[in-house]
Specification:
338 residues, alpha/beta, binds zinc ion, 31 strands
């Protein structure tokens, strides 16, 4: 009875989940006496040096006791996580103030990092995620490194923000991967990466070089409404599925020609002649932009008006009408001579 009364009257940490992914989360720790927001040692963002030492000791206790719920925790210093023993990995809304290293090599549970913030470099190098990887709405303020890692199930990076260099070199995605609405402010390297199922890159901004050289897309890839603001490399990339690229913008004319040619060829391979025509048009638009004005004009007439008989029957009628009108004009001027 007395214990119950103590628990009821004792104040608890007032941390509340802001990501929307753990709205039922309740922290059962005691708040720090000097915390402005009445947060505990784990959730307090402004930890003192003494707090940091206490935090280290208490986190190690949790890891020893196999407690892996770190929702909203603020990790103050460099941290190494050996994921091998993890039976759960709740890092929803967590903040890593310095560089963080996840070593394993396995992550044997869902890796939940939704809405997390990495203020230093985030290292997930060579890790094998045997289940799903969730980084929805996460922010990487410095480098994000997933080099040579493997995601066996789905990988979700929806609306993630990558402010530093991003490394997905030789990364293998075995199921669907979703980067929709993400922003890459620095170089994004996807060289020699493998996408076994659909890869979604819809509405993405690549602020610097995006390199997909020698990557393998074994299913469709979707770059609809994405913007490549600097160079985009797709040399020796393999596309087994279609490339969806409606309203995709590439700053470099040279890269545009190559990109839309790849999309055209992929559409042709899958018998999608409507899209093949669309990407052919895009490819030719880019080639024309690099030409002198009179060549541009002539090519415009040839491509815009005459191409696409299969997909644009209206062009047949327009061309026929022009031929009839010109013939009539000649007839009315010169008539028929014996
Ligand atoms: Zn707390």
């Amino acid at each position: 009875m007395a214990v119950d009364t103590i628990i009821k009257t004792e104040k608890l940490c007032k941390y509340k989940d802001k990501t929307g992914f753990r709205s039922d989360y309740q922290c059962h720790e005691k708040p720090l006496s000097d915390s402005k927001q009445s947060f505990c040692i784990f959730h307090e963002p402004g930890k003192t040096e003494k707090d940091c030492n206490q935090f280290e000791a208490e986190i190690n206790d949790k890891l020893r006791n196999n407690i892996y719920d770190f929702t909203g925790y603020v990790f103050p210093k460099i941290r190494f996580f050996n994921t091998e023993k993890f039976t759960d990995a709740e890092f929803v809304g967590a903040t890593f103030k310095e560089n963080v290293f996840f070593t394993g090599p396995h992550f044997n549970c869902d890796a939940c990092f939704m809405g997390s913030t990495f203020e230093g470099n985030a290292n997930f190098i060579g890790l094998i995620f045997t289940l799903n990887l969730f980084l929805v709405g996460s922010t990487f303020k410095k480098e994000a490194n997933f080099r040579e890692s493997t995601v066996e199930m789905e990988a979700d990076f929806i609306e993630a923000t990558f402010n530093g260099r991003t490394d997905f070199i030789k990364t293998s995605f075995k199921r669907m991967v979703n980067f929709n609405g993400s922003t890459f402010r620095k170089e994004a390297f996807f060289e020699k990466s493998t996408f076994r199922e659909e890869a979604k890159f819809i509405g993405i901004t690549f602020g610097e070089r995006a390199d997909f050289s020698e990557s393998k897309f074994k299913d469709d890839v979707n770059f609809t409404k994405s913007k490549f603001e600097k160079r985009a490399f797709f040399s020796k990339s393999i596309f087994k599925g279609e490339i969806h690229a409606k309203d995709t913008k590439l700053e470099s004319k040279y890269d545009s020609v190559i990109f839309f040619r790849l999309a055209k060829n992929a559409a042709y391979t899958h018998g999608n002649y409507v899209d093949q025509g669309y990407y052919h048009q895009k490819e030719m638009d880019q080639i024309r932009k690099g030409q002198v004005w009179y060549k541009r004009g002539w090519n415009f007439i040839i491509q815009k008006l005459l191409h696409g008989y299969g997909e644009k029957p209206i062009n047949v009628f327009i061309t026929a009408l022009i031929v009839i009108l010109i013939s009539s004009l000649f007839f009315s001027i010169f008539g028929i001579h014996e």
